[in-house]
Amino acid sequence: MNQFLIFILLTLLKIAVVTVVFLTAVAYTVLLERKLVGRIQNRWGPSRVGPFGLMQPLADGLKLFLKEDLMPSAVERPLFILAPIIALACALTSIAVMPYGRDIRWHGVDMFQIANINVGLLVILGVTSIGVYGIALSGWSSNNKYSLLGSLRSTAQMISYELALGLSVIGVVLRTGSLNLRDIVNLQATHGVLSWNAFGGVQIVAFFIYLTAAFAETNRTPFDLPEAESELTAGYHTEYSSMKFAMFFMAEYANMINVGAVATLLFLGGWSSPFGHLFPDFGGPVVHALLPVFWFVAKVFCFLFLYVWVRGTLPRFRYDQLMGFGWKFLLPLAIANVVVTGLVLAVHG
Amino acid sequence: MHLALFIIFGLLCLGGALNLLLQQHPINSALSLIVVMSSLAVLYLLLGAEFLALAQIIVYSGAIMVLFVFVIMLLNAGLEEKTRGSRAAYLAGIPGMLALFGVLAGTFFTLRSSFGSARLGAYLATTHDLAQVLFRNLLLPFEVTSILILVAILGAVVLARKEH
């Protein structure tokens, strides 16, 4: 029983720490985006609140929290309230199955992953597919044509690109022979860059497909038609204000981090160092435990940087181009990748 | 623990199913169906079928129900209308449902011994086990089903094609 109590306490501790870090990361991703887009457009971005504008997320949060919570009278109340909760809850769930460090046990509990699940990858895909309802219902329950158009676009886009996304990870699963995220990372953790799925594993095509589909899944530029402000006001969250709006906002940025983290785990070796065993271990057990976490965070950060960079660079797709690209290019490419990977694995064993 | 989860999600599943029938608006019914599908997934998980549970969530709760909701939103379907036909459906439907339930329950109880049983949480069928069965013992039915789905896809393409 004592062992069980330790397990419960340590798990609660992990959940608390990961949630706090994750939410802070979400807040600072917003700042990162505003800063970087600012630099790309040759201006400073937020710089007044705190040193280098670093307290800006705090000020934004406070502002959103204190705003009046308007609810239009014609909305479908239960669903209108439920929609942002679904969106945020699903966005915050995926992190629970991701390993963010080496499997180091303390009192028999793995301290660098909240839950090690055999079908972890499927859990992430499942939670993402449920998250679509947040956006779909918000648009419908708002009783506003712009919201409805935004959510219809978003739903159609997510269904279309989820197929390509799901097929793109099959190559990685074939190579590993497991859906467990720890197994997937462990396979890539042997020889640094050379054993990462994207390079040594020759899943570079799958990586490209995943990345493109992930941009579409998170409704980011160049696939941000659901919130195209020039034609749809603000898209599906037009009628939302105060914390309900903030929940959608947080969900979007949390999803960016999720997608970056999954790409890191599947294609870029997760927590493994890019140098493999090139350098001997230095430092004590603490460095040995925390260095992988650094690599994981650094890789996710690169993805977030890429997101912002793409947003600052590319224009938006036209809607038929978006659908054509998803169905006629990405999907066949993903199927071809599965076939080729399967054949190569069958020949080489 | 397993029993408690079974009771909670079993009740949730039944409640969702009843709500599906009682709601007037199609979107509420569709959402209840999502609850039913997801609770079924938890029941599968309790029986140790982890892959099946997640496939249920991704395919049914996720993809198929999103399409349902999408169509309801796109057509802007309104409240259910009561006509004389629907009253007739009540009269025929409720006894019919009870009869079907009785037949199924009776069959299960008489054939219970030959079905074998699985205790909650006693067994875990990994994805590996499932693949062994699916791609070795049941390969032919699997391929036949694949061809059936392929035919369905071709049919959808033919139906949706624009005439030139």
Would you write up a description of this structure?
The complex is a heterodimer of chains A (349) and B (164). Chain A has 349 residues and is mainly α. In chain A, 66% of the residues lie in helices and 1% in strands. Chain A has two domains: 20-66, no CATH class; 67-348, no CATH class. Chain A is built from twelve helices and two strands; from the N terminus they run αααββααααααααα. A two-stranded antiparallel sheet of chain A has the order 1-2. The longest helix of chain A is centred in the N-terminal third of the chain and has 39 residues, at 2-40. Chain B is an all-alpha fold and 164 residues long. Chain B folds into two domains: 2-125, Up-down Bundle (Four Helix Bundle (Hemerythrin (Met), subunit A)), CATH 1.20.120.1200; 126-164. Chain B is built from seven helices and no strands. Chain B is globular.
Number of strands of chain A: 2
Taking the alpha carbons of the first and last residues of chain B, their distance comes to: 62 Å
Helix fraction of chain B, binned, reads: over 70%
Strand order of the largest sheet of chain A: 1-2
Explain briefly what this protein structure is.
The complex is a heterodimer of chains A (349) and B (164). Chain A has 349 residues and is mostly helical. Chain A has twelve helices and two strands, in the order αααββααααααααα.
Notable features of this structure?
heterodimer; A: 349 residues; mainly alpha; two-stranded antiparallel ribbon; 12 helices; B: 164 residues; 2 domains; 7 helices; 80% helix; 0% strand
Chart the SSEs and their pairings:
The complex is a heterodimer of chains A (about 350) and B (about 160).
Chain A lengths: L1 H39 L15 H11 L10 H17 L11 E2 L2 E2 L9 H22 L3 H24 L1 H7 L4 H8 L15 H14 L11 H4 L9 H26 L17 H29 L5 H30 L1
Antiparallel strand pairs in A: 1-2
Helix pairs in contact in A: 1-2, 1-10, 1-11, 2-10, 3-4, 3-10, 4-5, 5-8, 5-12, 6-12, 8-10, 8-12, 10-11
Chain B lengths: L1 H21 L3 H21 L3 H26 L8 H27 L1 H4 L11 H11 L1 H22 L4
